[in-house]
Amino acid sequence: MKITINGSPVEVSENKTVLEVARDIGVFIPTLCNLPEIENRGYCRLCTVEINGKFLPACSIQAEDGMVVTTDSEEIQNIRKAILEMIFKEHFTNCPECVKCDTCELQKCATKFNLKLTDVYSLQPSEEITEIVHGVNYDYRKCVLCMRCINFLNKKYEKKILEFRDGAIRNCSECFDTEIVNICPTGALFLNLTEEK
Ligand code: SF4
Ligand code: FES
């Protein structure tokens, strides 16, 4: 089958998302909640593109024959920037002290969209940190609710380890897995070093 991306026809195999097709041909689309190893349900919407005249998340739409996709335009950029600004309104932004400083995917997106982090700095006392699974701490003020940690752990252990409840990620089963620190795009999950000793 064939779709059109940014005016160019592209041959596409079955069962590929628009995001995967774009990546295959080297077209950049920003993402935050997307992870290849888990099913994507379009939580962050940062990958918004225009598909047949509608603004939709590229990571969770399957490519279909005849689709016409635009991945970049002023309107699309404005949508993505508005989404990022919304995320930053809720985000505890203390980058210089954050464990993920320089590797944070949210910070990288902000740089790409020329968001001045000094304008969005929000310094709050760090009292809201809890242990989410053994060995890993959770700071809900830095959580962008991308659901990566939930989907990753629940799939890996084939049972409910984490869930989204009352506006945050909650533990619902005993587990020790520090891998989710790397799954998290921000500094919301980080190693509990006191536990490690
Ligand atoms: S803790 Fe991290 S991985 Fe989990 S939902 Fe929040 S931002 Fe996403
Ligand atoms: S990366 Fe597509 S909705 Fe988040």
Describe the model.
This protein is of the alpha+beta class and 197 residues long. The protein folds into 2 domains: 2-82, Roll (Ubiquitin-like (UB roll)); 91-196, Alpha-Beta Plaits, CATH 3.30.70.20. Helix content is 27%, strand content 20%. Strands 2-1-5-3-4 form a 5-stranded mixed beta sheet, sandwiched between helices. Strands 6-7-10 form a 3-stranded antiparallel beta sheet. A two-stranded antiparallel ribbon has the order 8-9. Strand 3 and strand 4 (54-57) form a beta hairpin. The radius of gyration is 18 Å and the shape is globular. The mean pLDDT is 90. The site of FE2/S2 (inorganic) cluster has 13 residues, from loops.
Number of strands: 10
Distinct small-molecule ligands in the complex:
iron/sulfur cluster, FE2/S2 (inorganic) cluster
Please identify the structural class as seen in this structure.
Answer: alpha+beta
| H/E topology pattern | EEHEEEHHHEEHEEHEH
CATH topology of the largest domain: Alpha-Beta Plaits
Please give the domain count: 2
Q: Give me the CATH architecture of the largest domain, please.
A: 2-Layer Sandwich
Give average pLDDT, whole number: 90
User: Roughly what fraction of the amino acids lie in strands?
Assistant: 15-25%
Provide the CATH top-level class of the largest domain. Answer: Alpha Beta
User: Mind summarizing the main beta sheet?
Assistant: 5 strands, mixed
Unreliable stretches: none
